[in-house]
Amino acid sequence: MKAVQHPSVLTSQKIKTAWLFLLPMLAVLAFTAAWPLLRTIYFSFTDIREFGQDSYNFVFFKNYLYFDQQGEWKGLFANPTWWRSVWNTLKFTVISVSIETVLGILIALALNLEFRGRGLIRAAILIPWAIPTIVSAKMWAWMLNDQFGIINDLLIKLGFLSDPIAWTGTPDTAFIAIIIVDVWKTTPFMALLSLAALQLLPGEVYEAAKVDGIGPIKRFFHITLPLIRQPLMVAIIFRSLDSLRIFDLIYVLTPNNEATMSMSVYAKFEMFDFSKFAYGAAASTSLFLIISLLTIIYIKFGRVNLGQN
Amino acid sequence: MKYLKLSNILLTSVIVISVALVSCQKFGSDAVSIATGSTGNDIELLRTVLEEYTTETGQAVEITSMPSSTTDIFGQFKIWLNAKTSEIDIYQVDVIWAPQIGNHLVDLTEAVSDVSGDHFSSIIESQTSNGRLVALPFFTDAPALYYRTDLLDKYNENVPETWDEMALIAEYIMDEEHAAGNTELWGFVFQGNSYEGLTCDALEWVKSHGGGQIIEPDGSISINNPDAVRAIEFAADLVGTISPPGVTTYQEEEARGIWQTGNAVFMRNWPYAYGLGNSDDSAVKGKFDVAPLPSGGAGSAATLGGWNLAVSKYSEKQEAAIDVVKYLASKKVQKFMAINNSKLPTLPELYSDPEVLKAVPFFAEWLDVFKQAVPRPSAPTKTAYNEVSKEFWTAVHNVLTGSSSAKDSLANLERKLTDIKESESGW
């Protein structure tokens, strides 16, 4: 690290140009991300009931938490349904991202080998990722149907089941079904990012390891994993951010069901279906804070480096 | 180089397609647009009558197809209305919505004063919010118990009049048929998914057991009582015995799917399933009939349903839209929908129309069922209805899936409803 230095005329000009080039993107970001976010936070401190309503009052933290006349805590933070949706989302994220990471690395290792038709296979594994979630969720909903579904039919014919399971019918199996569909859909993403990292690894290290007679499993844990750790951690952040705000899959597979409701589904219902826009905005703001907090903790303790070196 | 070219071609085609799509919308902008649910044959038949309208008047009408779940439709409609979109001119609205979205809709009182008197006055009243008539009735709904005449005859059983009788008959026929190799057969299918439909089904169980109607017309919360507990316990016992375990995921169309493939002895559904059940590709064609829903000791109870046509305040073609609404609510179209789609008309005179009764004989009897139908508590709870209904269906669903006992669930529900009632959005 160099001490503070006065930049030369050329450098300062370069910096100026860089900012000029960045300006359109910053403007778009401010308009599409920062503004809606700030509006949502602002609305969460009001009593607005419908989006588009003209007059409303400030109630400060009342949507979040307050002590009512009967001596009971009320508001979002005192609502067990909200905490249940937080718990559902966290459980979903930890389980699905873990499975996707392990499967993704395994697939990437296989695809990193030289074999005929590798290009074709690489393209083929991307198909689940390319299908819009709403379409794949609806498709899976039919495949998981207890009477007409192909999954039950298959499992019964293979002898694993004697009676069809109503997958999305009970809270436990519904949760499993959601994880299965999510893993099916997003493992290709993890595989692709892991594969990209694997292809950058230097071949000499492996040759040296081979010469030293180190087995493949040890090679993976002592060479491959440490070397792809950084890109892998970044991929996990992306996936976690994505699954912490999961909406479409859960909304299609188990609509309006508290047992599997995620934070986003909860906020959507409060904001748009129940005429409690401000309360829903409070839920959205909390969702944003929870995701930010988890990401900061993850980056700090995972020692992830998002800049160069 | 090759890849670059390919990506160029792709990019160009995307741009061309988007431009084409945008300009298509511009060209079609004279058309009045109607947003409507898509249960059964609804869209297909609506298209038929609207094409006729276009030929007669020259006015084009576009259909925006919505999902069949009324809960999903409501969520989307509210987003559109709050965003004040002018893209939808006519909304097909559920009978329970008028108090919740009435202020986004055009007051039709004067525009339809020549025809509003022809409809059932109770429906016109239900669509009047703060003295404004916000929707014109399209069809009404009161559910029925569908039963298999061939199976009841085969086992010499009568049409059940109580829920317990129905459960016994269903179980008996199911066991006998399973023993005879017909293992796919279930006793009873209904709407057990967690959505507005479950509120309808559960209200019928509760009311027919003498457990009140969740929230009484005076606004008091009555749901936590022993009769209601008994009713919900009865329903929970059905799941996995005479009803498939997956019934907790069924809406109208899933229930009809099992019924129409010949795999259920009884079904609770709306009249629309009658016409479809008698269509040529139906396995139960000519093998079923309908009766009023069974009683739980306090008489039969049917939840009042029905759909109405409203014009958006944000529409730029309100006059044209009102004309379309009047056409769709007319005797001609309602008669067509009654005959071809077994939809209950909102015009009393059609209940004695010989052509209608030939196509759907049970409509003669349904006039009484409709008149005694139980309304959902949308009037007393006003804008809080949707949340009230969600809490109710969630409480019932928790019992059906076995995650809570009926007693605990209804006690908990009473607390939640009291909270909503006392909050700012309360009644």
Description:
The complex is a heterodimer of chains A (309) and B (427). By secondary structure, chain A is mostly helical. Chain A has a single domain (81-301), classed as MetI-like (MetI-like fold). Chain A is built from 12 helices and 2 strands; from the N terminus they run αββααααααααααα. Chain A has helices at residues 9-43, 80-111, 118-124, 127-130, 133-143, 150-157, 171-198, 203-211, 216-244, 248-253, 263-273, 277-301, and strands at 66-67, 73-74. Chain A has a two-stranded antiparallel sheet. In chain A, strand 1 (66-67) and strand 2 (73-74) form a beta hairpin. The longest helix of chain A has 35 residues, at 9-43. The termini of chain A are close together. Chain B has 427 residues and is of the alpha/beta class. Chain B folds into 2 domains: 30-141 and 304-371, D-Maltodextrin-Binding Protein, domain 2 (3-Layer(aba) Sandwich), CATH 3.40.190.10; 144-302 and 378-422, D-Maltodextrin-Binding Protein, domain 2, CATH 3.40.190.10. Helix content of chain B is 48%, strand content 12%. Chain B has helices at 2-27, 42-57, 70-82, 98-101, 121-126, 149-154, 163-179, 196-208, 226-238, 252-260, 272-277, 318-328, 331-341, 354-359, 363-371, 378-381, 385-400, 406-422; strands at residues 32-36, 61-65, 90-94, 128-129, 132-133, 136-141, 144-148, 186-189, 264-269, 288-291, 305-311. In chain B, strand 1, helix 2 (42-57) and strand 2 (61-65) form a beta-alpha-beta unit. The A-B interface holds A 47, 49-52, 74, 145-148, 164-166, 168-171, 254-259, 268-269, 272-276 and B 69, 71-72, 74-75, 78-79, 82-84, 100, 193-195, 244-249, 254, 257-258, 263, 383-384, 386-387, 390, 393-394, 397-398, 401-403, 419, 424-425.
| Amino-to-carboxy terminus distance of chain B | 68 Å
Question: What percent of residues of chain B are in strands?
Answer: 5-15%
CATH superfamily membership of chain A, which one?
MetI-like
Question: Largest sheet of chain B, described in full?
Answer: 5 strands, mixed
- Number of domain modules of chain A: 1
**Number of structural domains of chain B:** 2
The DSSP helix count of chain A reads 12
Q: What is the strand arrangement across the widest sheet of chain B? A: 2-1-3-11-6
Give the name of the CATH superfamily of the largest domain in chain B.
Answer: Periplasmic binding protein-like II
**Can you tell me the overall shape of chain B?**
globular
Task: Summarize the helix and strand pattern of chain A as letters.
Answer: HEEHHHHHHHHHHH
Task: Provide the low-confidence segments of chain A as ranges.
Answer: none
Whole-number radius of gyration of chain A?
Answer: 24 Å
Q: CATH topology of the largest domain in chain B, which one?
A: D-Maltodextrin-Binding Protein, domain 2
Q: What is the CATH C level class of the largest domain in chain B, in words? A: Alpha Beta
Q: Report how far apart the termini of chain A are.
A: 12 Å
Please give the share of residues in helix of chain B: 40-55%
